[in-house]
Write a structure and sequence with these properties.
199 residues; mainly alpha; Rna Polymerase Sigma Factor, Chain: A; Arc Repressor Mutant, subunit A; elongated
């Protein structure tokens, strides 16, 4: 799986400031869907995955001030993956009676498994990349003509040939090719902008 830049250091610094709501909302917008989808892929039902995401985000909020990048090998996503994995394991293994009986502190969640679980780290990586793409797609789709976006959808997402897309949209083959290339470049640029705001 392709590696991606870490959560922007600038965002991590801003999130550590408890008064910076904008940074926290940006952090939650990126990571809540990642945590929910990771929990769902590990076997949790939708409502339980939402509850777990809330628990993980509360744990992160209470401990983010203590997180620091000690060296180049220190990765926020590994830390987040450990918290998420341990919360998932706790949720899946405890009895139904005590499922809603409160949360664990981030220190308890981290202490259970010292090393990051490679499978959960991989899921977090994948879901993070997916969330960046979804956010970039929403931005780019608003910036282009509907036919340009549709050409991209047909040829890249749906896998239709450029020729068939041109026929379906009543456009020239060159127009489809240009639209596809423009959207792909714009998506790369927006994703890079989103990642620049990450560690």
């Amino acid at each position: 799986m392709t590696q991606f830049p870490e959560t922007r250091e600038s965002l991590m610094i801003q999130v550590k400031d408890p008064d910076n709501r904008v940074a926290w909302e940006q952090f939650v917008a990126i990571y809540r869907p990642v945590i929910v989808r990771t929990a769902a892929k590990r076997g949790m039902q939708a409502a339980d995955a939402q509850d777990l995401a809330q628990q993980v985000l509360l744990a992160v909020a209470s401990a983010i001030g203590d997180w620091e990048k000690r060296d180049e090998s220190t990765r926020f996503r590994h830390w987040l993956a450990r918290v998420t994995r341990n919360a998932i394991v706790n949720a899946l293994t405890r009895g139904a009676k005590d499922r809603a009986a409160g949360g664990s502190s981030v220190q308890e969640l981290l202490a259970q498994h010292r090393q990051p679980d490679p499978e959960t780290v991989s899921l977090i990586d994948w879901e993070y990349r997916r969330e960046l793409y979804l956010q970039a797609a929403r931005i780019v789709q608003q910036d282009v003509q509907p036919d340009t976006w549709r050409a991209f959808e047909l040829t890249v997402i749906d896998g239709m040939s450029n020729r068939n897309a041109a026929e379906q949209l009543g456009k020239s083959l060159g127009t489809i090719y240009t639209a596809r290339c423009r959207i792909m470049q714009r998506l790369r640029d927006v994703i890079a902008e989103l990642e620049v705001s990450e560690v």
